[in-house]
């Protein structure tokens, strides 16, 4: 505990009274001395006078509240200033309580114990937060292995993925992989954020691992849907798009409630039609419709999660699916890395307001 008062008699009295109650005390006679002690010594409570030379107590308290390490330090003002005026100023400048001189010892000790209990709870929360953040960082490393960003070429076709979780780990999923004759493109978005959504995303990937190579697209989606509906909580849902591209550039896909895939072909950009039900924790007996389209060399296929289309600008306007179509078209026309260009344009749209949802994207260049 640190006692700060320019009157030596006041300091000695408080030191004696609090020492008799078992408190370890430090003393300072100015804000400057107090500052040096606070920087170099762990202090649980600050008892602060108001009327001091050079820098008064209110100003010093305000200064401390502007420093991260002292934002939660309990500060009690002990002063002879009129209580009605002094209490208001104390609270305005960041104090936790106000005691008038001459003070009652029992009241002072009771208030010190009160702020110490609050500080203990705050310290416990801070420790738990630090522990949680360490666990999130570890989980992020695991998720990076589960959902690695990919960039490869298959039969002259360039595939590239991007994954940007908002909350260190997120519920988006994106992957591209190849079997003997086809390129598989999968993107999904679990409702919610954080660890629970990330675990559901991991379960989604497990279903991909368990698919039989001989399954066609409809059979694959039926299998994933059936198994995810068993484990998915009722208040969660998953949108997805599963596409397969063969060597003759025939694209087949099923879009389960996901933002429409975007296709740049012959100088034009359009949204691909067709939308089947999303995956939910309730069996809706969905009828997944397979869509087919013939692509051509020079085309670009782009899929994304709604964290991109739901990005907002400083005026709280959503980018929207039309905005994503426009951004994708511009990114392709300008050349360069399409996913990098798209991401930069989304951030430019947001301005100083960063995206508040996970973002996953995949681009296929033929």
From TrEMBL:
Q: Which PROSITE patterns match?
A: RESPONSE_REGULATORY
The Response regulatory domain covers: 1-116
The record's annotation in Gene3D superfamilies points to: 3.40.50.2300, PPM-type phosphatase domain (3.60.40.10)
Molecular function in Gene Ontology = phosphatase activity
UniProt keyword list = Coiled coil, Hydrolase, Phosphoprotein
BP-aspect Gene Ontology terms: phosphorelay signal transduction system
Q: Which residues carry this modification: 4-aspartylphosphate?
A: 49
Listed name of the protein: Fused response regulator/phosphatase
Q: Which organism is it from?
A: Leptospira ognonensis
């Amino acid at each position: 505990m640190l006692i700060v008062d320019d009157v030596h008699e006041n300091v000695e009295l408080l030191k004696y009274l609090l020492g008799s109650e078992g408190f370890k005390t430090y003393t300072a006679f100015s804000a400057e001395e107090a500052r040096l002690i606070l920087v170099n010594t762990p202090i649980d409570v600050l008892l602060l006078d108001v009327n001091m030379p050079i820098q008064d107590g209110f100003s010093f308290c305000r200064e401390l509240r502007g420093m991260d390490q002292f934002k939660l330090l309990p500060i009690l003002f002990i002063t002879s200033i009129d209580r009605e005026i002094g209490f208001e100023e104390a609270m305005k400048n960041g104090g936790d309580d106000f005691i008038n001189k001459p003070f009652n010892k029992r009241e002072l000790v009771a208030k010190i114990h009160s702020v110490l209990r609050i500080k203990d709870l705050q310290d416990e929360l801070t420790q738990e937060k630090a522990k949680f953040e360490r666990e999130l960082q570890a989980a992020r490393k695991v998720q990076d292995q589960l959902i690695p960003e990919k960039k490869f070429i298959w039969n002259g076709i360039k595939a590239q993925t991007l994954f940007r979780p908002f909350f260190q780990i997120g519920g988006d999923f994106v992957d591209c992989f190849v079997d003997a004759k086809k390129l598989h493109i999968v993107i999904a978005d679990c409702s919610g954020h954080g660890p629970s959504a990330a675990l559901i995303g991991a379960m989604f990937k497990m279903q991909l691992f368990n698919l039989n190579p001989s399954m066609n697209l409809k059979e694959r989606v039926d299998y994933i849907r059936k198994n995810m509906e068993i484990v998915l909580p009722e208040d969660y849902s998953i949108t997805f798009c599963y596409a397969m591209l063969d060597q003759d550039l025939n694209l087949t896909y099923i879009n389960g409630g996901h933002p429409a895939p975007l296709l740049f072909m012959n100088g034009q950009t359009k949204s691909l039609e067709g939308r089947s039900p999303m995956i939910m924790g309730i069996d809706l007996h969905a009828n997944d419709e397979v869509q087919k389209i013939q692509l051509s060399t020079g085309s670009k296929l782009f899929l994304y999660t709604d964290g991109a289309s739901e990005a907002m600008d400083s005026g709280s306007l959503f980018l929207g699916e039309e905005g994503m179509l426009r951004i994708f078209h511009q990114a392709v026309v300008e050349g360069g890395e399409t996913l990098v260009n798209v991401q930069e344009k989304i951030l430019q749209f947001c301005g100083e307001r960063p995206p508040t949802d996970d973002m996953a994207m995949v681009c296929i260049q033929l």
